[in-house]
Automatic annotation (TrEMBL):
Record's keyword annotation contains S-adenosyl-L-methionine: no
Superkingdom, natural source: Bacteria
Quaternary state and interactors: Homodimer.
Matching InterPro entries: Ald_DH/histidinol_DH (IPR016161), Ald_DH_C (IPR016163), Ald_DH_N (IPR016162), Aldehyde_DH_dom (IPR015590), Aldehyde_DH_Superfamily (IPR050740)
Domain Aldehyde dehydrogenase: 14-473
Protein name listed in UniProt: 4-(hydroxymethyl)benzenesulfonate dehydrogenase
EC top class named in words: oxidoreductase
Reaction(s) catalysed by this chain's protein: 4-(hydroxymethyl)benzenesulfonate + NAD(+) = 4-formylbenzenesulfonate + NADH + H(+)
Organism, as annotated: Variovorax gossypii
Keyword Phosphoprotein assigned: no
Length: 480
C-alpha cells in the first residue's frame, strides 16, 4: 500500500520543505516509519492565518448555491478516492480497512449534508414595533477564519465535520490534523481545493500541537476555534479563546454508560455492545465504557462478554480478517496499562486482557474489568481504548444515578424491550447523544455534541452549521 509524500498547504501552496523541521509518521501496526511530516514554523503559521483572512473575503462572497456546488463536488471526489484515502488512513492510524472505507464514505456524506444546509441558512423577518421600518430581519453570517484542531482517532470524519460546516457557512479555515495521522487530512484538503475552494481559504498546518494552537488562537485573523480532543486540552484552548472573546466549539471526551435492563434481549445487547466497545480499539469519544448489568444476570453477562472479547481477532488493519487493530501510538499503551493496574490495585477483578499483546505494533488486548470501585481511574477518566468495565446494579434508579454520576455527558446507551422504560431512560440519561437499543448516534444529519464537561456546541446536523455563523439584526428604515 502506498503512503503519499506529506505536505502542508499554506497560503495557496503545497509545501514539503518548511521551517519547523519534520517528524516521523509511524505505522502503529508495525512501529515502522512510513513518512516524514514537514512542520510549520511561526512565520508559516502567520502566513496561513493571513491567507485565511484573505481567503475568507473571497469565499464568503460566493453565493450559498456556489458554495454548495463546490462542496458537493469535493464530496464526490472524496467518494471516488475512498479506497485510496482509506488505505492511507489504515496505514497511519491502524483501524481495519473496511472501517476506514466506511469512515471515508461517511465523511463524504457529511460534506454533502452540510453543503445542502448552506442553502437553508434561513433568516427571519420580524414585524417592526415602530413606524417607518421597511424590514427588520435576523440573518446569519459566517463568523470568519476558523482554526480547527482534530485528533487521530477519526482522521477523515473529524476533519470532514469541521471543514464541511465551516466552508458551507462561508468561513475560511486553518486546520491542524493530528501529527500522527496527517495523510488522510491532506487528501481531504486536496479534494476540497480541486473542487474549487479558493486556495487561500483552506490551509493545513502541522507542528507542535500546543505551540500551533496557542499561536493561531492568539492571531488576530482567527475568529473561531474548533477543537476535538481531551477534556483537559479542550479547557485550555477554550480558556485561551475566551480571553479574546473568540467563538469556541469543543467536542471533548466522554465516559459512556450502558444500562442493560432486566427485560433486554441479552444476546442482541451483548453482540451490539462488543461491536461498539472494541470498534477502533475503543478509541471513540462516544464509545461505551461502563456497562451496568442487573445483579441477577451479572454472571451470565460477564461470562459471555469475556468469551466474545477473547474471540476478537487482533491484527494489522490491512489484513481483511482483522476485527481490532492497534492503538494509535505508543503513549496509549502505557496509559491502558496504568488504567488496568490502578483498577486492580483498588480491588477490581480483571476478567480478561489487561496487557500489551506479545507482537510488534501498539496492540493492547481486549480488556474486561468487573466491580471497579468508584474512585478507580477507569471509573473517573476516559480510558479511550479497549477496556470495558462491568458493574452490577440492583434497581434501575440506582443504575441511572450511577450512569449520570460523572462530570461527562457525551454518549449514553440502554437496552430494554419495554417502551415506557425506553422513554424513561431516554429522558433520564444526561448526555448529548442517547441511544436506546442501538449505538449508532453519530449520523451526518444529527447533531453530535456533549453535555457537561464533554463539550460545548455540536457538529453535524443543522446545528453544526449554525456554530460557524454570527447573528445579525438588520433593520432598514424608509429613506428620509
Ligand atoms: N474526543 C475525541 O475524539 C478524542 C480524540 C483523541 C484523543 N482524545 C482524548 O485525548 C486523550 C489522550 O490522547 P493522546 O494520548 O493522543 O494525548 P494528547 O492530549 O497528547 O492528544 C490528543 C489530541 O489533542 C491534540 N492536542 C494535544 N494538546 C494540544 C494542544 N495544546 N493544542 C492543540 N491540540 C492539542 C493532539 O494533537 C491529539 O490530536 C485520550 O485519552 C482521549 O481522552 C479524545
Ligand atoms: O464513526 S462514527 O460513529 O461516525 C464516529 C463516532 C464518534 C466520533 C468521535 O470520536 C467520530 C466518528
Amino acid at each position: 500500500m502506498d503512503y503519499p509524500e506529506l505536505a502542508l498547504h499554506i497560503a495557496g501552496r503545497w509545501r514539503t520543505q518548511t521551517q519547523g523541521g519534520r517528524r516521523a509518521v509511524i505505522d502503529p501496526a508495525t512501529e515502522e516509519t512510513i513518512a516524514h511530516l514537514p512542520l510549520a514554523g511561526r512565520e508559516e503559521l502567520a502566513e496561513a492565518a493571513e491567507a485565511a483572512r484573505r481567503g475568507f473575503i473571497q469565499w464568503r462572497a460566493k453565493s450559498a448555491l456556489e458554495r454548495c456546488n463546490i462542496l458537493r463536488a469535493a464530496a464526490q471526489k472524496i467518494r471516488e478516492q475512498a479506497k485510496t484515502i482509506a488505505q492511507v488512513l489504515t496505514l497511519e492510524q491502524g483501524k481495519p480497512l473496511a472501517e476506514s472505507v466506511r469512515e471515508v464514505t461517511l465523511s463524504a456524506d457529511i460534506v454533502d449534508f452540510q453543503a445542502e444546509e448552506a442553502k437553508r441558512l434561513y433568516g427571519r423577518l420580524v414585524p417592526p414595533r415602530v413606524e417607518g421600518i421597511l424590514s427588520q430581519a435576523v440573518v446569519r453570517r459566517p463568523v470568519g477564519p476558523v482554526a480547527a484542531f482534530t485528533p487521530w482517532n477519526f482522521p477523515a470524519n473529524l476533519p470532514a465535520r469541521k471543514l464541511a460546516s465551516a466552508l458551507a457557512a462561508g468561513c475560511s479555515v486553518v486546520i491542524k490534523p493530528a501529527e500522527e495521522t496527517p495523510g488522510t487530512c491532506m487528501l481531504l484538503v486536496r479534494a476540497f481545493l480541486d473542487a474549487g475552494v479558493p486556495p487561500e481559504a483552506l490551509n493545513m498546518v502541522c507542528g507542535d500541537p500546543a505551540e500551533v494552537s496557542s499561536f493561531l488562537i492568539d492571531h488576530p485573523a482567527i475568529a473561531k476555534v474548533s477543537f476535538t480532543g481531551s477534556v483537559a486540552v479542550g479547557k485550555l484552548l477554550g480558556e485561551q479563546a475566551a480571553r479574546h472573546v473568540k467563538r469556541f466549539t469543543g467536542e471533548l471526551g466522554g465516559h459512556a454508560p450502558v444500562i442493560v435492563c432486566e427485560d433486554a434481549d441479552f444476546s442482541f445487547a451483548l453482540k451490539s455492545s462488543i461491536a461498539a466497545k472494541f470498534r477502533n480499539a475503543g478509541q471513540v469519544c462516544a464509545s461505551p465504557i461502563r456497562f451496568y448489568i442487573p445483579r441477577s444476570r451479572f454472571g451470565e453477562w460477564s461470562e459471555a462478554f469475556v468469551q466474545a472479547a477473547r474471540a476478537l481477532r487482533m491484527g494489522p488493519g490491512t489484513d481483511a480478517a482483522t476485527q481490532m487493530g492497534p492503538l494509535a501510538h505508543a503513549r496509549r499503551i502505557e496509559d491502558m496499562q496504568r488504567f488496568v493496574d490502578d483498577a486492580v490495585e483498588r480491588g477490581a477483578q480483571l476478567l480478561c486482557g489487561g496487557q500489551r499483546a506479545q507482537r510488534p505494533g501498539y496492540f493492547f488486548e481486549p480488556t474486561v474489568i468487573a466491580n471497579a470501585p468508584p474512585d478507580s481511574r477507569v471509573m473517573r477518566q476516559e480510558p479511550f481504548g479497549p477496556i470495558a468495565v462491568l458493574q452490577p446494579y440492583d434497581t434501575l434508579d440506582e443504575a441511572i444515578d450511577s450512569a449520570n454520576a460523572l462530570p461527562y455527558g457525551l454518549g449514553a446507551y440502554a437496552f430494554t424491550r419495554d417502551l415506557h422504560t425506553a422513554h424513561r431512560l431516554g429522558e433520564a440519561l444526561e448526555a448529548g447523544m442517547v441511544g436506546i437499543n442501538h449505538f449508532g448516534v453519530s449520523q451526518p444529519e444529527m447533531p453530535f455534541g456533549g453535555w457537561k464537561e464533554s463539550g460545548i456546541g455540536q457538529e453535524m446536523g443543522a446545528e453544526g452549521l449554525l456554530h460557524y455563523t454570527e447573528v445579525k439584526t438588520l433593520t432598514v428604515g424608509v429613506p428620509a
